[in-house]
Structures are given as C-alpha cells and as structure tokens.
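Deliverable D5.2: sample structural annotation.
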Amino acid sequence: MIQALNLDKFNHTAKWLLKAAIIFFGTLILIALLAVTLYLVYEKKYELRIYPNVIIGGMNVGGKTVDEAEKIINEKVDKINQAGIVFFYNEKKAAIMPTITSIDGDFAYDVITFDTKKTLEAAFDIGRDTDKIANFKNRLGLLWGDIRIPLKYELNEEKLKDLLSDSFPQARAETKNAELTIEDGKALIKDETLGLSINYAKATADIRQRLAVLDENPIKIEVETVYPQVYKKDFLDKGIDILAQEFIDRAPYELNHGKDSWKIKKEDFAGWVTLKNSLDICASGTLEAAGIASTTEDEMAEFCYSFKGTSDNAVIGLDEAKVMEYITKNISPKTDKEPSESKFEVKEGRVTEFQVASSGKKADPVKNFKLIEYNFAGKKATTSEIVVDKVESEFAGKNLNDLGIEEIIGTGKSNFAGSPKNRRHNIKIGASRLHGVLIKPDEEFSLIKALGKIDGTTGYLPELVIKNNRTIPEYGGGLCQIGTTIFRATVNTGLPVTARQNHSYRVSYYEPAGTDATIYDPWPDYRFKNDTGHYVLIQMRMSGNDLYFDLWGKKDGRKVTVGKPIISNIVKPGPTKLIETTDLKPGEKKCTEKPHSGANAYFDYKVVYPDGTVKDKRFSSYYKPWREVCLIGVEKVNGGGGATSTPATTNDEKKATSTP
C-alpha cells in the first residue's frame, strides 16, 4: 500500500517536472524566437539607415538614410558657410568665412572645408564593422546610449592665422630685440621691447573644437606676451658696441661678380649689422652650405670667436633678411637667368621644337648671405665674391624622334563667355604657360608647378576678392578655367587623376556642374599621372570663347567611358550680402553676379586597359549655396556688411531638373 502511494507521488512529481520543463523551455524558445524576430525586424529597418542614437554635430541622425542625414548636416554646415565663425577681442568682432571668394565667385579658396560625405560614411559604418563582437556591442549600446561622431573637416591654419592677424591688429604689437643703431656715426645699442601676439595655437584649438560639433558660438581671442631674444643687458659693458663700430667703420664693402661690382656704403652697411643671441652662424655645416671648403675645429673656433667678441652670448653678424633683400633686388637682376625648357608644338602632324632648352644661372640668396657674413664679419675682409650657380634645363638634349608623340590621345574643352577683360587676359597667359609642356612617362603633372609664379611680374592681372567684408586685389583670377579644361582633357584621355578639388560655388564658366577643378597656389593643386608609357605633350588652342587643351602622345588601346554629371540636393542661397567700399560713390550699388544655389553633383569614370584591367572612379562635388554679393559705396568703410534681401529663384535651380 505504502509502495503504491509512493509510486503515485513519484509519477505526479515527474509529470509536474515534465510540465514545468516544457513550459520553461517553451518560454525560452518563444523568447528566443521573439528576440530573433525583433533582431530581424531591427536589422531590416536599419538595413539602409544609420543605427539609432548616432550624433553628428549635436544632431541625432539615427534612423536616417545617408541622404536624409546629409541634408540635415548640410543645413547646419551651410549656415556656417554663410555666416562664418565669429571671433572677438574686447569690443571688436570679425567673422572668419570658410571660403574667400572673388566678386564673381570664379576665384575662391577654402579656409575651412567640411567633409560631410566621409563623416556620414563613418556614421553609417557604426555597427557594421567586420568584427562581429564589436558590432554587437555597438548596436546594444546604442539602445540606451549614444555615439558622437566629430564632423570631419580640413582647416588651413596658415590662412586662418593671416585672417586673424588682419582682423585684430589691436591684439598685436611687434617684439623688438636689442639692436644696433647708428646716430651721428656712432654705434649704439637700442633697448629691446616686449611684444603682444594673438595666441594662434589657442584660437586654432578653439575653432577646431567648434567645427567638430558645428558649434556657432563666438570664440574669444586670447593674447600673449612675446619676449625678445636679444637683451641690451647682455651686451653692455662687454665692448660689443665698440666691435660693431669697428665693423661698420671698415666700410665701404664691395660685392663682385665678373666685371660687375656693388659697393655698400657705410650708412647702408650699418643697417645690415645686427646682434644675435646664439652661435647659429657657427653651426656645423654652415660654411659648407655656403660652398666654403670644410674647416678644421681650430679654424672653426677661431672663425666663431671673431663673431663673438668679448662675450660668449654676444654675436655680431649680419641681418639675413636685409642682405638677402639686397641680393634679390640689386644683384639677381644682373646675374640670374631662368632656364628655358624645351617647348614643342604639332605642325602638319609632326612635332617640332619652337623653344630650345637652355641652362640658366642663379645667385642663391641664402648661400651668398652665408658667404658674405663669413667674409665680412668672420675674416674681416671688405670684399666678397658673389657665387652664381648653373641651373640645368630638365629636357635639354632630348631627341624629338625619341618622344613617341604621334596623335591626339584626349581633348578637354571649356567656355569662358561673359568673362571680363582681366579674366580673359589671365586665361590667355595661363594657357600659354602650358602650351608645349612635355610630361615624362610616369611623371605626376602638377598644374601649380607648370604655371609657375602667379603675380604681376609674370604678366597676370589682379582680381578683387572679399576678405573681412573688404575687397582686396589678389592674383589668380581665371586660372581655374585652365584647371577645369585640363581636368576634362585628363578624364577624356583616361589618365589617373591624383589631386582634384571642385569649386566652392557653382560658376557659370564651368557648367555642367561636377566637371570643374579649382586651383590656388600652393593648394589646392590639380595633378594627374602620365601612365601611358610615352611622353605626353600639351597643346593649347582657342576658338572664340572656347578653350581647348589637346593631349598628344601615343594611344595604348585603353577605352574610356565618361558618364554625364548628375545634380541633386539643390539648396537655395541666403539673403544678399552688401560689401561697403570706397571704390563707388556713396549710396551707389553694384551687384556683380546673380546668386547660385548649392548642390551635389557627381559623374562616373571608367577606364578599361588593354590587359583587361578595369578602373572605376566617381568624381563627387559639393557646391555651397552662394548668395548675391553687392558692393555699396560709402564715404568710410566701417567693416560692416549685411543681409538685406532674399534672392529670387536662381538659374541653377532651373538647370538642375535635367542633366546638362
């Protein structure tokens, strides 16, 4: 009986345990199925979207497609592009504009370049890493937290420094070292003075922090005391003024080269003599750099002592900047000759040389300064020979028959209709610089290098650019027509482009949008590589308002496909900006060009090589909206400017509905 009861109890317990197990494991299975279902739904939802709680510049772009997020980010970016980042010092405020542009928008360069595309790529890649564990952690963490991504950008720190320096002159005061001065023929030591400087490192760090999160709050300019390097107390009572007087009294000094000579009078030479607080002039290799034979340690010690005089800290030498300026202005024009490269053209299907290569000469200012200081200050001589070096031409002695130039392998074309006189002039000058240029096999061509010096001395005319609400003449207008045309020639030839940047704004000269290339010395540059295995010759031609660059060489069988540009994301420009100027009568208003809408553009480029290798590339461009800019005459410029009206629909919006 007892055994029967125990058996029943056991069976009952077993059934209960089985039932509990079924319920437990069933629940686990349901939870697992639910989790899998939710995961699949979650993954499906975010398949083409950024995962939730991803923050860029203080804006949550989670759940957005890349295109949707791009519009959100670009709205904030465009706001900064239009208004700039404001700096202030005491009562003075100045906006640093991301882009410095000419009046007509053709000539522009960036101080700040936002890279929205790369930022969004980084945002989209969160949770999509090849590391599955890292992916899981990121996705899980985003359910109750966020991930903040700094906006990617490039900052031209040198240009920023120039703009801040120009905008806040009251925050700067020149530091002066103790220096020699001549009064009534006597050498005296003048007191040093403390200076004041903008803390550029702090200003740069602050703006970088703002840009990373698209923070528009003003930035305070901080200043710092700049101490001199040479103090009067270091030289008093040590006879330095006496040694300097002896140095000056040996004048006149004479510089010679061949039959030419230049006499340096006492009053002029006195301005060259300076005090130095280190023995840099005695540093190892200094004399060798000047072309002087290597010296022994004893000879070097004696040489350096002749500079030092009676104090280990006191060095009497020559002012490098002043001596080099004298060489550049007075000596180089007589001694220097630029090497001329061979230039070629095609006539009746044959390559001919229209400019023969020749070597040049150059009196190197740095080398000659060291030699002059060595002779005058070190050896106490009163004469010094000017050293003139020979500069060889790169293509001297090339045989035309070895160049392998047979046919046109690609052509680029652009139109500059409507260009003003100065711009047309600069286009002709720039295009002529490229005509006949020869590019070696495997050479990377640099347009900035090929154009050479860009200023009034090389025939260019200036163009007005807008800086701190002022119009200032700068050189370089029209050269982007050269960049755009050579870019199109490169693409049509199938050569690899190694450096290209589109314009900040859409400009009518470079339509269709997305097929342009901007340049500004020293950067951005336009570059490509000659991978044809043969020389490539650039030929320029003009027909009316059309500019052509023909690339001559030898075809290797590559096939090139260039797609039509696709334009999207049209953004209307902001209100009209007025720039005060004294160049117009008070109250007179002059608007230079219509506003342009911002946009995205791209075109695809495909090259199939003879061995079957295929290279695909997409050239993407982003154009900022460009508001109308008008000059208004005033009696006195107060630095102000303002938005006064909202422009009407632009031509760009009409063009955007169809592919140009």
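Annotation notes: The first strand starts at residue 54 and ends at 56. The radius of gyration is 34 Å.
The annotation will be released with the project's public dataset once the embargo ends.
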